[in-house]
Protein backbone atom coordinates (compact mmCIF):
# COMPACT_ATOMS: atom_id res chain seq x y z
CA UNK A 1 0.00 0.00 0.00
CA UNK A 2 1.10 3.58 -0.44
CA UNK A 3 2.96 5.53 2.16
CA UNK A 4 3.98 9.16 1.90
CA UNK A 5 7.60 8.69 0.79
CA UNK A 6 8.37 9.25 -2.87
CA UNK A 7 10.14 6.14 -4.09
CA UNK A 8 12.76 5.97 -6.81
CA UNK A 9 13.75 2.89 -8.73
CA UNK A 10 15.62 3.05 -11.97
CA UNK A 11 16.44 1.03 -15.05
CA UNK A 12 18.92 1.87 -17.80
CA UNK A 13 17.77 1.19 -21.32
CA UNK A 14 19.43 1.36 -24.60
CA UNK A 15 22.22 2.45 -26.71
CA UNK A 16 25.81 2.16 -25.57
CA UNK A 17 27.26 5.64 -25.23
CA UNK A 18 29.35 6.95 -28.08
CA UNK A 19 32.90 8.01 -27.10
CA UNK A 20 31.78 11.65 -27.28
CA UNK A 21 28.79 10.99 -25.06
CA UNK A 22 30.99 9.05 -22.61
CA UNK A 23 33.30 12.03 -22.37
CA UNK A 24 30.34 14.36 -21.84
CA UNK A 25 28.91 12.03 -19.18
CA UNK A 26 32.28 11.84 -17.42
CA UNK A 27 32.42 15.64 -17.40
CA UNK A 28 28.84 15.83 -16.08
CA UNK A 29 27.70 16.80 -19.57
CA UNK A 30 24.22 17.71 -20.69
CA UNK A 31 22.70 21.14 -20.55
CA UNK A 32 25.13 22.49 -23.14
CA UNK A 33 24.46 23.74 -26.64
CA UNK A 34 20.99 22.59 -27.85
CA UNK A 35 22.62 21.81 -31.20
CA UNK A 36 24.64 19.04 -29.48
CA UNK A 37 21.61 17.53 -27.76
CA UNK A 38 21.73 14.80 -26.63
CA UNK A 39 25.27 14.23 -25.47
CA UNK A 40 24.39 12.57 -22.18
CA UNK A 41 21.93 10.02 -20.77
CA UNK A 42 18.28 11.05 -20.68
CA UNK A 43 16.09 10.27 -17.69
CA UNK A 44 12.39 9.53 -18.13
CA UNK A 45 10.52 9.91 -14.85
CA UNK A 46 7.49 7.62 -14.47
CA UNK A 47 5.03 8.71 -11.78
CA UNK A 48 3.85 5.21 -10.75
CA UNK A 49 5.37 1.87 -9.75
CA UNK A 50 7.60 -0.28 -11.93
CA UNK A 51 5.69 -3.05 -13.69
CA UNK A 52 2.42 -1.10 -13.90
CA UNK A 53 0.75 0.19 -17.07
CA UNK A 54 2.37 3.65 -17.29
CA UNK A 55 5.76 2.07 -16.68
CA UNK A 56 5.05 -0.63 -19.30
CA UNK A 57 4.27 1.92 -22.01
CA UNK A 58 7.40 3.90 -21.10
CA UNK A 59 9.62 0.83 -21.38
CA UNK A 60 8.08 0.03 -24.79
CA UNK A 61 9.15 3.37 -26.25
CA UNK A 62 12.40 3.86 -24.32
CA UNK A 63 14.50 1.46 -26.35
CA UNK A 64 13.61 2.75 -29.84
CA UNK A 65 13.89 6.33 -28.57
CA UNK A 66 17.31 5.54 -27.16
CA UNK A 67 18.41 4.07 -30.49
CA UNK A 68 17.11 7.11 -32.31
CA UNK A 69 18.84 9.59 -29.98
CA UNK A 70 22.06 7.58 -29.60
CA UNK A 71 22.19 7.83 -25.79
CA UNK A 72 20.98 5.71 -22.91
CA UNK A 73 17.54 6.31 -21.45
CA UNK A 74 17.21 5.75 -17.72
CA UNK A 75 13.74 5.14 -16.34
CA UNK A 76 13.11 6.45 -12.84
CA UNK A 77 9.91 5.50 -11.01
CA UNK A 78 9.04 8.34 -8.63
CA UNK A 79 5.80 7.37 -6.95
CA UNK A 80 3.42 9.30 -4.75
CA UNK A 81 0.29 11.46 -4.58
CA UNK A 82 -1.33 10.20 -7.79
CA UNK A 83 1.67 11.15 -9.94
CA UNK A 84 2.05 14.71 -8.64
CA UNK A 85 5.35 14.02 -6.80
CA UNK A 86 7.04 13.01 -10.07
CA UNK A 87 5.52 15.89 -12.03
CA UNK A 88 6.61 18.39 -9.36
CA UNK A 89 10.13 17.05 -9.54
CA UNK A 90 10.35 17.35 -13.34
CA UNK A 91 8.82 20.86 -13.27
CA UNK A 92 11.85 21.93 -11.22
CA UNK A 93 14.47 20.12 -13.30
CA UNK A 94 16.86 21.98 -15.61
CA UNK A 95 15.05 22.81 -18.88
CA UNK A 96 17.66 21.07 -21.03
CA UNK A 97 15.80 17.98 -22.29
CA UNK A 98 17.69 15.52 -20.10
CA UNK A 99 14.80 15.09 -17.65
CA UNK A 100 11.56 14.00 -19.27
CA UNK A 101 8.24 13.18 -17.62
CA UNK A 102 5.92 10.43 -18.83
CA UNK A 103 2.47 11.16 -17.48
CA UNK A 104 -1.09 10.25 -18.30
CA UNK A 105 -4.58 11.68 -17.90
CA UNK A 106 -3.67 12.48 -14.27
CA UNK A 107 -1.71 15.51 -15.50
CA UNK A 108 -5.03 17.12 -16.42
CA UNK A 109 -6.91 16.30 -13.21
CA UNK A 110 -4.23 17.37 -10.73
CA UNK A 111 -5.07 21.13 -10.79
CA UNK A 112 -8.66 20.40 -9.75
CA UNK A 113 -7.91 17.70 -7.20
CA UNK A 114 -4.86 19.24 -5.49
CA UNK A 115 -5.57 22.78 -4.28
CA UNK A 116 -1.90 23.24 -3.23
CA UNK A 117 -0.37 21.78 -6.35
CA UNK A 118 3.20 23.11 -6.59
CA UNK A 119 3.16 23.23 -10.40
CA UNK A 120 0.90 24.26 -13.25
CA UNK A 121 0.63 21.54 -15.92
CA UNK A 122 0.15 24.15 -18.65
CA UNK A 123 2.61 26.87 -17.57
CA UNK A 124 5.44 24.82 -16.06
CA UNK A 125 5.82 22.18 -18.78
CA UNK A 126 6.54 21.99 -22.47
CA UNK A 127 4.65 19.17 -24.17
CA UNK A 128 6.71 16.77 -26.32
CA UNK A 129 3.95 14.64 -27.80
CA UNK A 130 1.12 12.21 -27.14
CA UNK A 131 2.06 8.54 -26.90
CA UNK A 132 -1.02 6.34 -26.68
CA UNK A 133 -4.62 6.19 -25.45
CA UNK A 134 -5.34 3.11 -23.39
CA UNK A 135 -8.77 1.68 -22.55
CA UNK A 136 -9.47 0.71 -18.95
CA UNK A 137 -11.08 -2.47 -17.73
CA UNK A 138 -13.15 -3.10 -14.63
CA UNK A 139 -11.69 -6.17 -12.94
CA UNK A 140 -12.04 -7.98 -9.60
CA UNK A 141 -10.44 -10.69 -7.53
CA UNK A 142 -11.23 -14.07 -9.03
CA UNK A 143 -13.64 -15.17 -6.30
CA UNK A 144 -15.55 -11.88 -6.11
CA UNK A 145 -19.22 -12.82 -6.19
CA UNK A 146 -20.73 -10.80 -9.08
CA UNK A 147 -20.35 -12.47 -12.49
CA UNK A 148 -21.42 -9.65 -14.83
CA UNK A 149 -21.40 -5.86 -14.84
CA UNK A 150 -25.14 -5.83 -14.09
CA UNK A 151 -24.53 -8.08 -11.07
CA UNK A 152 -21.56 -5.94 -10.00
CA UNK A 153 -23.81 -2.86 -9.96
CA UNK A 154 -26.46 -4.48 -7.74
CA UNK A 155 -23.85 -6.15 -5.53
CA UNK A 156 -21.98 -2.88 -4.94
CA UNK A 157 -25.24 -1.03 -4.26
CA UNK A 158 -26.25 -3.65 -1.67
CA UNK A 159 -22.80 -3.94 -0.05
CA UNK A 160 -21.52 -0.37 -0.28
CA UNK A 161 -19.94 -0.44 3.19
CA UNK A 162 -18.09 -3.73 2.63
CA UNK A 163 -16.74 -3.53 -0.92
CA UNK A 164 -13.14 -2.27 -1.39
CA UNK A 165 -11.87 -0.46 -4.50
CA UNK A 166 -8.14 -0.12 -5.33
CA UNK A 167 -6.63 2.99 -6.87
CA UNK A 168 -3.19 4.44 -7.60
CA UNK A 169 -3.75 7.61 -5.59
CA UNK A 170 -5.96 10.67 -5.97
CA UNK A 171 -5.97 11.80 -9.60
CA UNK A 172 -4.71 8.50 -10.97
CA UNK A 173 -6.65 6.91 -13.82
CA UNK A 174 -7.96 4.19 -11.50
CA UNK A 175 -9.15 6.88 -9.09
CA UNK A 176 -10.91 8.79 -11.91
CA UNK A 177 -12.63 5.67 -13.16
CA UNK A 178 -13.68 4.98 -9.56
CA UNK A 179 -15.16 8.49 -9.31
CA UNK A 180 -17.21 7.89 -12.48
CA UNK A 181 -18.30 4.45 -11.23
CA UNK A 182 -19.41 5.81 -7.87
CA UNK A 183 -21.22 8.74 -9.50
CA UNK A 184 -23.02 6.33 -11.85
CA UNK A 185 -23.91 3.84 -9.11
CA UNK A 186 -24.72 6.49 -6.50
CA UNK A 187 -22.45 4.88 -3.87
CA UNK A 188 -19.43 5.83 -1.74
CA UNK A 189 -16.85 3.05 -1.70
CA UNK A 190 -13.92 2.35 0.59
CA UNK A 191 -10.92 3.17 -1.59
CA UNK A 192 -7.53 1.59 -0.98
CA UNK A 193 -4.63 3.67 -2.37
CA UNK A 194 -1.44 2.17 -3.81
CA UNK A 195 1.69 3.65 -5.42
CA UNK A 196 0.58 2.31 -8.78
CA UNK A 197 -1.64 -0.43 -10.11
CA UNK A 198 1.17 -3.01 -10.21
CA UNK A 199 0.97 -3.42 -6.41
CA UNK A 200 -2.83 -3.03 -6.58
CA UNK A 201 -2.96 -5.91 -9.08
CA UNK A 202 -0.85 -8.02 -6.71
CA UNK A 203 -3.49 -7.49 -4.01
CA UNK A 204 -6.36 -8.22 -6.43
CA UNK A 205 -4.61 -11.50 -7.32
CA UNK A 206 -4.02 -12.20 -3.63
CA UNK A 207 -7.66 -11.43 -2.78
CA UNK A 208 -6.85 -8.59 -0.34
CA UNK A 209 -8.92 -6.01 -2.25
CA UNK A 210 -12.13 -6.52 -4.24
CA UNK A 211 -11.99 -4.60 -7.48
CA UNK A 212 -10.51 -1.77 -9.55
CA UNK A 213 -10.32 -0.16 -12.99
CA UNK A 214 -7.00 -0.41 -14.74
CA UNK A 215 -5.49 0.05 -18.17
CA UNK A 216 -5.51 -2.93 -20.55
CA UNK A 217 -1.71 -2.61 -20.59
CA UNK A 218 -1.80 -4.11 -17.07
CA UNK A 219 -4.88 -6.32 -17.21
CA UNK A 220 -5.01 -8.06 -20.61
CA UNK A 221 -2.83 -11.04 -19.67
CA UNK A 222 -4.47 -11.49 -16.25
CA UNK A 223 -7.94 -11.42 -17.86
CA UNK A 224 -7.07 -13.77 -20.72
CA UNK A 225 -5.38 -16.21 -18.31
CA UNK A 226 -8.48 -16.17 -16.08
CA UNK A 227 -6.57 -14.88 -13.06
CA UNK A 228 -9.02 -12.04 -12.43
CA UNK A 229 -12.71 -11.51 -13.11
CA UNK A 230 -13.41 -8.88 -15.81
CA UNK A 231 -16.68 -6.99 -16.21
CA UNK A 232 -16.25 -4.37 -18.90
CA UNK A 233 -13.99 -2.16 -20.94
CA UNK A 234 -14.47 1.59 -20.43
CA UNK A 235 -14.41 2.66 -24.09
CA UNK A 236 -17.28 3.00 -26.56
CA UNK A 237 -15.87 0.16 -28.70
CA UNK A 238 -14.82 -3.32 -27.58
CA UNK A 239 -11.07 -4.02 -27.54
CA UNK A 240 -9.61 -6.49 -30.06
CA UNK A 241 -7.34 -8.21 -27.55
CA UNK A 242 -10.34 -8.81 -25.24
CA UNK A 243 -13.14 -9.49 -27.75
CA UNK A 244 -15.58 -11.07 -25.25
CA UNK A 245 -15.47 -8.20 -22.82
CA UNK A 246 -18.53 -5.92 -23.15
CA UNK A 247 -18.25 -2.14 -23.00
CA UNK A 248 -19.52 -0.25 -19.96
CA UNK A 249 -22.37 1.11 -22.14
CA UNK A 250 -23.44 -2.43 -23.11
CA UNK A 251 -23.57 -3.30 -19.41
CA UNK A 252 -25.62 -0.27 -18.37
CA UNK A 253 -22.91 2.19 -17.30
CA UNK A 254 -22.62 4.47 -20.32
CA UNK A 255 -21.33 7.33 -18.15
CA UNK A 256 -18.26 5.36 -17.15
CA UNK A 257 -16.23 6.12 -20.24
CA UNK A 258 -12.54 6.84 -19.86
CA UNK A 259 -9.52 6.40 -22.05
CA UNK A 260 -6.09 6.95 -20.50
CA UNK A 261 -4.01 9.19 -22.76
CA UNK A 262 -0.27 9.38 -22.11
CA UNK A 263 2.25 12.01 -23.13
CA UNK A 264 5.85 13.12 -22.63
CA UNK A 265 6.79 16.47 -21.08
CA UNK A 266 9.91 18.50 -20.38
CA UNK A 267 10.18 21.57 -18.15
CA UNK A 268 8.95 24.86 -19.67
CA UNK A 269 11.71 26.88 -21.33
CA UNK A 270 13.40 23.81 -22.81
CA UNK A 271 14.89 25.03 -26.15
CA UNK A 272 12.68 24.32 -29.16
CA UNK A 273 15.51 22.52 -30.95
CA UNK A 274 15.78 20.05 -28.07
CA UNK A 275 12.02 19.51 -27.89
CA UNK A 276 11.92 18.82 -31.63
CA UNK A 277 14.61 16.15 -31.30
CA UNK A 278 12.66 14.46 -28.51
CA UNK A 279 9.40 14.67 -30.48
CA UNK A 280 11.07 13.20 -33.57
CA UNK A 281 12.52 10.33 -31.52
CA UNK A 282 9.11 9.68 -29.95
CA UNK A 283 7.44 9.71 -33.38
CA UNK A 284 10.02 7.24 -34.71
CA UNK A 285 9.52 4.95 -31.69
CA UNK A 286 5.76 4.97 -32.23
CA UNK A 287 6.21 3.89 -35.85
CA UNK A 288 8.45 0.99 -34.82
CA UNK A 289 6.64 -2.24 -35.77
CA UNK A 290 7.63 -4.04 -32.59
CA UNK A 291 6.14 -1.22 -30.49
CA UNK A 292 2.94 -1.32 -32.56
CA UNK A 293 2.73 -5.12 -32.14
CA UNK A 294 3.45 -5.05 -28.43
CA UNK A 295 0.85 -2.34 -27.86
CA UNK A 296 -1.76 -4.26 -29.90
CA UNK A 297 -1.28 -7.34 -27.70
CA UNK A 298 -2.07 -5.15 -24.70
CA UNK A 299 -5.20 -3.57 -26.15
CA UNK A 300 -3.78 -0.27 -27.36
CA UNK A 301 -1.97 1.47 -30.22
CA UNK A 302 0.34 4.43 -30.73
CA UNK A 303 -1.45 7.71 -31.46
CA UNK A 304 -1.69 8.46 -35.17
CA UNK A 305 1.67 9.83 -36.48
CA UNK A 306 0.20 13.24 -37.41
CA UNK A 307 -0.90 13.69 -33.78
CA UNK A 308 2.60 13.23 -32.31
CA UNK A 309 3.28 16.95 -31.98
CA UNK A 310 3.65 19.32 -29.02
CA UNK A 311 0.75 21.40 -30.41
CA UNK A 312 -1.71 18.48 -30.47
CA UNK A 313 -0.55 17.38 -27.03
CA UNK A 314 -1.11 20.90 -25.64
CA UNK A 315 -4.58 21.04 -27.19
CA UNK A 316 -5.55 17.73 -25.56
CA UNK A 317 -4.09 18.81 -22.20
CA UNK A 318 -5.99 22.12 -22.25
CA UNK A 319 -9.28 20.42 -23.17
CA UNK A 320 -8.82 17.75 -20.52
CA UNK A 321 -7.89 20.21 -17.74
CA UNK A 322 -11.15 22.04 -18.52
CA UNK A 323 -13.43 19.00 -18.82
CA UNK A 324 -12.09 17.13 -15.77
CA UNK A 325 -12.36 20.40 -13.85
CA UNK A 326 -16.13 20.22 -14.36
CA UNK A 327 -16.50 16.48 -13.68
CA UNK A 328 -14.42 16.59 -10.51
CA UNK A 329 -15.77 19.82 -9.07
CA UNK A 330 -16.05 19.52 -5.29
CA UNK A 331 -13.63 16.58 -4.99
CA UNK A 332 -10.24 17.35 -3.44
CA UNK A 333 -7.29 15.34 -2.19
CA UNK A 334 -6.82 15.72 1.59
N1 LIG B 1 -2.84 2.56 -13.78
C1 LIG B 1 -2.42 3.52 -12.81
C2 LIG B 1 -3.47 4.58 -12.66
O1 LIG B 1 -4.45 4.22 -12.15
C3 LIG B 1 -1.07 4.04 -12.84
C4 LIG B 1 0.04 3.03 -13.01
O2 LIG B 1 0.37 2.27 -12.12
O3 LIG B 1 0.60 3.07 -14.08
O4 LIG B 1 -3.29 5.73 -12.97
TrEMBL record:
Family: Belongs to the UPF0065 (bug) family.
Top-rank lineage group of the source organism: Bacteria
Name of the protein: Tripartite tricarboxylate transporter substrate-binding protein
Amino acid sequence: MADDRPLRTSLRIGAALTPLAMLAAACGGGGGDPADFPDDNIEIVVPFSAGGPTDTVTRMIAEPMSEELGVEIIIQNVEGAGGTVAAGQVAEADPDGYTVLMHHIGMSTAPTLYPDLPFDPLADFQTVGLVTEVPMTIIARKDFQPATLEELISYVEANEDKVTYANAGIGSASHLCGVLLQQAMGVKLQEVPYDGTAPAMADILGGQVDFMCDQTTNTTAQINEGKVKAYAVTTTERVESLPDLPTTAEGGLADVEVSVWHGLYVPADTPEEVVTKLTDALAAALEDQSVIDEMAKLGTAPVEPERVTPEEHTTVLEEQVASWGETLEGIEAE
